Amino acid sequence: MNNKSNPIAASTPDMENFPKDYTYCPASDEICPRAQHCLRAIAYRQLPKAGTAGKPGSIRIVHPAWQAAAKEGCEYYRDNTPVRFARGMTKLFDDIPHRLEADMRRGIMACFSCRSYYFQSRKGERLITPHEQQAIANVFRQAGLNTVPVFDSYIETVHW
Q1: What's this model's pTM, rounded to 2 decimal places?
Q2: Would you list the DSSP string of 72-130?
Q3: Which of 4, 21, 89, 128 counts the highest number of beta carbons within 10 A?
Q4: Which of 147, 158, 7 shows the shortest CA–CA distance to 83?
Q5: How big is the CA angle at 25 (ends 21 and 28), to the nearest 5 degrees?
Q6: 15 — pLDDT class (breaks 50, 70, 90)
């Protein structure tokens, strides 16, 4: 069945999309009231079961002590609600006055944790998180511009 025609399948992350070295959570719905909407718990439930084809590898899991304390809140919780990521910034400076461009470019580079993330994000090789989008919008505001940043495209997906 195609994921586009099935909204439940579309909202359930596929195993091939899980990040490498992801931390899984084996907490059940009975132990954790948020397990049903937690990416770590959903991912754990989709792991291949014992006795299936292929050689099982090692995984990282949330410690059982954290699982027991989940009712009070869990620092490992990852919501499965899709968020809006931006992709690409190739036209970001098209309408920026030339006198502001160099300072704004430096400010926008500072919105990322490293230079390579800036360049990967600019080319669309890396998604731009909602937090980074907001930081870029703040650079526009601080420069006195009343325009919002325009990214090449947008995609809704889960935030691992």
Answers
A1: 0.74
A2: G--TT--B-S-EEEEE--TTTTTTS-HHHHHHHHHHHHTTSSSHHHHHHHHHTSSEEPH
A3: 128
A4: 158
A5: 160
A6: low
